[in-house]
């Protein structure tokens, strides 16, 4: 199963990963990181096909995708 891991402290809340996920699996978390941004998170890991679009779009290199 694919797994998407976020380094929440690197996230700047730009929402690019959310816009580019073809399966619309990503959302902004309710909590804040240490920089004061809502970090991106994944709703349903089981629906992820490991396309890696989210990781490749992230300007902060905050996402890693494992297959
Ligand atoms: S790897 Fe692809 S399907 Fe999975 S969360 Fe990222 S953009 Fe969405
Ligand atoms: S693209 Fe990166 S910095 Fe932007 S919201 Fe997603 S994880 Fe955070």
Q: List bound small molecules.
A: iron/sulfur cluster
Distance between the termini: 6 Å
Total DSSP helices = 2
CATH architecture: 2-Layer Sandwich
**Can you list the strand order of the major beta sheet?**
1-4
What fold name goes in the CATH topology slot? Alpha-Beta Plaits
* Percentage of β-strand residues: 15-25%
Radius of gyration, in angstroms, nearest whole number = 11 Å
Mean pLDDT comes to 97
Poorly predicted tracts of residues = none
Task: Give the proportion of residues in helices.
Answer: 10-25%
Count of discrete domains = 1
The chain-level structural class is: alpha+beta
CATH class: Alpha Beta
Largest sheet, if any?
2 strands, antiparallel
Helices and strands, in order, run as EHEEHE
What sort of overall outline do the alpha carbons produce when their principal axes are compared? Answer: globular
* Strands, total number: 4
Question: How is this structure best summarized?
Answer:
The protein has 67 residues and is an alpha+beta fold. 15% of the residues lie in helices and 21% in strands.
Describe the overall structure.
By secondary structure, the chain is of the alpha+beta class. The protein has one domain (3-66): Alpha-Beta Plaits (2-Layer Sandwich). 15% of the residues lie in helices and 21% in strands. It is built from 2 helices and 4 strands; from the N terminus they run βαββαβ. It has helices at 16-20, 53-57, and strands at 3-6, 26-28, 40-42, 63-66. The strands form 2 sheets. A two-stranded antiparallel sheet has the order 1-4. The protein has a two-stranded antiparallel ribbon with strand order 2-3. The chain starts with a strand and ends with a strand. The model has no long low-confidence stretch (mean pLDDT 97). The structure holds iron/sulfur cluster (SF4) (2 copies).
